[in-house]
């Protein structure tokens, strides 16, 4: 099973947050203090090693906000009185054998309707029935619970007790399974941890209690927190995954015979205290080899070993401690946090491969911490390997990161952006909807992964098609007399690999609630601007945009420009597309009347034209209407160069530079960094460039 949805109400900065999670890899991105760690901690409370009812929650764990005290006129802190956490589980591959070991029956009560648990208000807020969830011990007395009949004394029966086998069948047929935890801040005794099930007949059931064995049978979880703690992550007690791993390895190998002495290692350990460390390492030799394979690529070291710290003869495995020799043989907790992270990932994967029979969830907070670039990539690969190393059990991976490395090859649909609402001091989580996700092509994903993953961390993104990706930061710094101003304001410049991708990018950014500015040339009026106008419902300029498109499309074709593009095929996306289609044509893969081939040729004919586009537009609709169209677009964060394209704004000095369009733009960006360089020596129409700068900032 895996977590398909997580919801939190009044937990830390999570006033009202719901995130969709997918089987496989999920990545949380966001600034420091945005709330990513709070989401992870909330998930850990529900499915982590420590049982929820044993969590030490304080006032700091409840949502806090400020409001005006109308009696004094001053701001006062208000702390929420209740919190509620919920995780919906998908799949039904739980550990049946573990459920069968539960000795007691499990009680369930039938709830009259979903509204008895939680309901949505007119403004979209969700009301949680905190009192019900915190009163599971008295659930039989609740009016929200249906009567299942009457007992011999004439009293209503409000629950049903299920044996382990009945629980298994119940869970198998359930349409919905949710884990929940509810806690009162005012009354420490009022809390509830249980399971909600929607049965095959749409009946809603809530458990009176959820045992640890039943919870653990659903999913095994480990969290590698940003604050690495070997003592917490690798506690050698019987109920932790690490304790189960070491005990399992010990039980599997302790009866192996020593090749020369013909005695089991366990007997030898008990007999020969002075030689304990040597024999223990032999017991775990095969398993430490697997760990060493991971570390070879990530961390400089010599050996990894399990050692006894004393010779206590009862439960011998509990005396084992992990050592790493990187030139100096020391316990793992004395080594750096990078190597600790690498070993924990490897050990958890080893545990899941050998001893855990159902689904596994690995959560890694900022796995890039304390690792050099190559090691980051190795750990990223190992995290991915964790997902695919088992064909028998589904695995889920949740990562929070500030590194673009961990977004490579991640489906945009599986990325969650977390940010703070400054007005209410609460976290907000945004992700793609299904429709937008389906419109993101494989080609766009590949370009996104290789060039533009940084945009997921930005507050604003400037979408460009060409050399502006190099020039805009330098122009802004020159006009504002600053250095790296865009970085300070968390603004990213992203190249979209063809203006045809503008619309998909803004749909994606809108889903993540990231501000954007589109920067395009007049050619965008041929196809992209009409699409953007339709998407943004800018009906007031729709007719003029259509006329602009017609005016530009009527201009004569420039076959010379097309020829130049084809000659520079290695640097031009349009030419590459045409080349690929011509290769398919020559190989007999497509016919000469192929729709894609004809559309590409027509596109290039429309795009590469002769003449002055600005003059053609003004002749068609007039200067005033053209200005209104440009102004309306800019008010909606679409900035179209009024004179043509970027190169139209170059002075003769800039045009005289040698090289491709990109190399010229890159060289100009370096020249602009000189304090003595005046911008008007390199660019024309500075007033329009200033307008662009103001829109970006």
UniProtKB/TrEMBL annotation:
Keywords: Endonuclease, Hydrolase, Nuclease. It holds the Pfam family AAA_15. Residues 1-405 form the Endonuclease GajA/Old nuclease/RecF-like AAA domain. Coiled coil: none annotated. Residues 456-523 form the OLD protein-like TOPRIM domain. GO terms for molecular function: endonuclease activity. This is Predicted ATP-dependent endonuclease of the OLD family, contains P-loop ATPase and TOPRIM domains. It comes from Soonwooa buanensis. The lineage of its organism: Bacteria, Pseudomonadati, Bacteroidota, Flavobacteriia, Flavobacteriales.
